[in-house]
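Justification of computing resources. Each target in the renewal requires a structure prediction run like the one illustrated here; the chain below, 225 residues long, is used simply to show the kind of job we budget for.
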Amino acid sequence: RLRMVNSVGFNSENIWGAILYKDTVDRGMVPILREKGITPFLKVDNGCEPDGTLKPFSVSDMCSYARANKIVGTKMRSIITELELMETVVAQQFKLAQAIAYEGLIPIVEPEIPIDHPWKGPLEKVLVVKLATHLAKFEKKLILKLTIPEKKNQYQSLLMYNNVAKIVGLSGGYSTTEACERLSKQDAMSASFSRALSEGLFADQTKSEFDARLLKNITMIKDAS
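Resulting structure tokens:
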């Protein structure tokens, strides 16, 4: 991760924010990002239960840690596996996001629909309604991080809510090329890619090889955004 961040293409002209694991923060990543003009966010969850909901974690402890390390926002990822569980997943995300927002941070709400789900498209049609319902009651600002939808601009209507600071798409296991092709069809969604960003990077690459491949990925993702 440090090799990626120190690469020449990883700069504020191409990247506005980076989501960090706590162990990455502990090892000194935040000052490096700050020096580059990139906003740090903290992954606060402990993973998911079998039903896709978030495992328990202390919101107050993670928010205190974030503020102590000059981090402005948080991220927590749930997984939508069944239609019947969608409301439970979304409601939990917004309940925790509201607590995080009251702590003075910007939460990234991420209810992910797996890219290989057989009912991905139909689930997305329901999800946009669920999100709108909860956004209508949400106080303060948040960012939505969603699977790139099958239908163009499926989530664009959510930008009508003043509390939505940004909508970003996750790569979710798509190749960099496919993720970028899908993202480029959306008019109001930028990228929040991890796997697609690091595709083709290996420990044994020379600096020039590593930097060139990362810059290629970054350029593709930036253009698609």
